Amino acid sequence: MKGLMQDTPLTLSMIFRRAEQLFPDKRIVTAEVGGAKTRTTYAQWCERTRRLGGVLDALGISADGRVATFGWNTARHLELYYAAPCSGRVLHTLNIRLFPDQLTYIANHAEDEVVFVDKSLLPLYQKVSGTFTTVRHTVVIDDGAPGELPDGWLDYERLLEEAGTPVDLEVVDEGSAAAMCYTSGTTGHPKGVVYSHRSTVLHALGTMLADSVGISEADVILPVVPMFHANAWGIGQAGVFAGSDFVLPGPNMTPAALVDLMEQERVTLAAGVPTIWMGVLPLLEGRDLSSLTRVVAGGSAVPKALSEGFRRAIGLPIQQAWGMTETSPVASTGRLRSSVTGLSDDELADIRATQGMPMALVDARVVEPDTTNVLPWDGTTSGELQVRGPWIASAYYDDPRSPESFTADGWLKTGDVATIRPDGYIHLVDRTKDLVKSGGEWISSVDVENELMAHPKVKEAAVIGVAHPKWVERPLACVVVRDGETLTKDEVLEFLAPRVARWWLPDDVVFIEEVPKTSVGKFSKKTLRDRFAGHVLPDVTS
Ligand code: ADP
């Protein structure tokens, strides 16, 4: 017997229409170049988005043509987030921080037809634009940056005025592509992930659930996570769906600017990578951040000391989320479940340092590497984390490498190594390629780093494996000391000794100026491994 319910397609058009109808007065604030703020309402944003749909028609963009963006978090970018997919096109957010040859690859691979570029990013964009072979139009969005419009390029506001006939933004096929993002591709070319309307709507609903991030109408959201990376964690969709206010930081992502925005605009929910919050933490004192109810971090592990630092400063620990571009990207979120009672602050902090529980509709498992053996959820047995669900990728776009990342029965192989506790909390041990492989056993670089970063004089720390003749690899701690402080190797090792297993203790400690970061602000262990490839460990020389 079949169910007899309406088979309504799940599309971004529904989200857009609802926002237009229910939330015309909700606000979208954008911090522009120079710091001035532009304030718009949903009503204005919806009207402009409909006209932008008309602009795409006038430019002759194909029915499912790729509409690329090269921009900061702004209200205009949010217009593109809807005008492209709701007019049947596919939004392709170019990650402005990718290397030039990666940008060339992804723009050509996606066959972008038009690129919308923020004026302040023109110097960066013009370094690569000549290599884009399929782009027919470049539209410049004036964000107040100085400079002229390059010859032959179009002006966003002018197009909206002259060619922007408001259009119906109705998509009927929920399976059609809405947006695409490429992974940052630490090895090989970036890989394209294509989100459907359906996957996007379900992911948005997922992040609106009270037991995940709980995005709601009452929220004033500051997405620090860029709209050019991993879909801004779906905030652009969930926030509009819920009718939240938005505070968009534009190009100035400095910790000082972010704290000002949070305080002045009474932000309730802010989301960004841990590196951002590390910069913000020392600035919290004396600020009125009483409006904040969630500070969310993901993209890399949230050190316990960072989350506890926030708890002490503003009474709010950081809420951790885990995911990948391939998972839309949120797949697990940290919340203390009701069974977690009677624990000390320190034990609670340990739970918050996990990557949380799989979200509703996401299945997770750990599998013994290079086998199909599913491992128990016992909190200690580690293996590759695999996930599946309606907002998890099933393949990469036009890419022969797809089979390497998906199992025969449809699970995504994340390349992350994890344990799962019996109550479902996922603890990410490491990325497969960052594990230190010592004498046939694994050392979690993440766990050792977390302990290192709890040292009051340590600003940042990364642990990498370096070659060892007997053990294959041994850990090397790369430590950045806080300004004005001094620290010795012995002090570092003494601090770590009671905190990690004896054989996890780094064989050496080097002091560096800064931990190198990837395009999206994560620790770049690869850069460190290259830099210290020839490092000779003390016991090897003795
Ligand atoms: P890439 O960096 O490959 O482009 P993503 O930005 O999608 O890809 O990053 C996904 C990866 O980031 C995950 O596979 C995982 O290794 C890491 N990651 C994401 N969230 C967390 C988290 N909360 N804790 C630890 N690692 C995380």
What labels would you give this structure?
542 residues, alpha/beta, GMP Synthetase, Chain A, domain 3, nine-stranded mixed beta sheet, binds adenosine-5'-diphosphate
How would you characterize this protein structure?
This protein has 542 residues and is α/β, with parallel strands linked by helices. The protein has a domain at 435-531: GMP Synthetase, Chain A, domain 3 (2-Layer Sandwich), CATH 3.30.300. The strands form five sheets. A nine-stranded mixed β-sheet has the order 2-1-11-10-12-13-14-15-16. Strands 7-6-5-3-4-8-9 form a seven-stranded mixed β-sheet. A four-stranded antiparallel β-sheet has the order 17-18-19-20. Helix 15 (489-496) links the parallel strand 24 and strand 25. Helix 2 crosses helix 3. The chain is globular, with a radius of gyration of 23 Å. The model has no long low-confidence stretch (mean pLDDT 95). It binds adenosine-5'-diphosphate. The site of adenosine-5'-diphosphate has 20 residues, from strand 14, strand 19 and strand 20. Adenosine-5'-diphosphate is lined by residues 183-184, 230, 298-301, 320, 322-325, 329, 355, 414-416, 428, 431, 520.
What would CATH call the class of the domain at 435-531?
A: Alpha Beta
Specify Rg, calculated over alpha carbons: 23 Å
The fourth-level CATH homologous superfamily of the domain at 435-531 is: ANL, C-terminal domain
Mean model confidence by pLDDT:
95
**How many beta-strand segments?**
25
The largest pleated sheet is described as: 9 strands, mixed
The backbone outline, from C-alpha atoms, is globular
Helical/strand content category: alpha/beta
The kinds of small molecule bound in this structure are: adenosine-5'-diphosphate
Q: What is the end-to-end distance?
A: 76 Å
Helix content: 25-40%
Percent of residues in beta strands?
15-25%
Q: What is the CATH topology classification name of the domain at 435-531?
A: GMP Synthetase, Chain A, domain 3
Strand order of the largest sheet: 2-1-11-10-12-13-14-15-16
- Under the CATH scheme, the architecture of the domain at 435-531 is 2-Layer Sandwich
Which residues form runs of ≥5 with pLDDT under 50?
Answer: none
Number of helices: 17
